[in-house]
Amino acid sequence: MTQPEQYRDDPDRSFVNLVALMSRDSGPDGLSISEILDRLDERAFGIVILILAIPCLVPALYGVPQIVGIPIILLAGQMLLGRREPWLPASWLRRRISREWLGRMADFADKRMRWIERLSRPRLRLMTSAAGERLAALMMILATLTIILPMTNSVPSLGLTLMAAGLIERDGLFVLAGEMVALAWITALAVVAFGLAFGATWAVSLFDRVGGQAVVDWFSTMFGG
Fold it and tell me: Which domain holds residue 33?
C-alpha cells in the first residue's frame, strides 16, 4: 500500500499529532489494523512495545509481565531481523478499529504521552539507525527475559519504556538510557546469581570438610530402612 504523503515517516514529526491525524482521517468504519500500521510506519514497533511495557512498571507485579513478555520478545525479534513493521496474521490485519476507539487513542496519547515529546527530540541518530535498532531489539529481548522472572519486573520495564520511547521519537539518548538501565539490571542479576552459586558451592565444600557425608550416611541408615 502506498503511504499518503502526510504519513510519510519523518523523525521530526510529533507522534502524538500523527495519532490525532489518523483519528481525523478515519472514515465512518474506522481503519483496519493494516492501515494503522502503514501510517505508523517504523514507529509501530516502538508504540506497541511501549503500550505493553508500561503496565509492567508496577512493582512486584506477577502474572501480567509473564503474559506480555512473550509478544514483546516476538516484536523485538522481528526488529532484530530487520523488519520495517510488525508482522501479524492476515486475519488480524483485516480487523477494523472503530473511529470512536481511534479518537480515544488520540485523547490518551495527547494527555498521557506528551511528556515524551517534551523531554525528547531527534538526537544521537546512530542509536536509532538500522544497526542501533537491532542493538536496542537485542537489549529488549534480554530485558524482557528478566521481566518474566517473578518479582523482577519494574527496573527492566523502565529500560523497555525508555528504549521504546526513544525509537518512537528517534531519540538516541532515550534509547541509550534504556539500554544502560537494562544492562545494569542484567549485570546485577548475574552478579547475584553468581554469588548465590558460589556461596552454595562453598557451603557444600565446607559441609564435606566437617564430616557432612557421615551425617548423610547416618540419616540414610536410620530412615532409609
Answer: 5-223
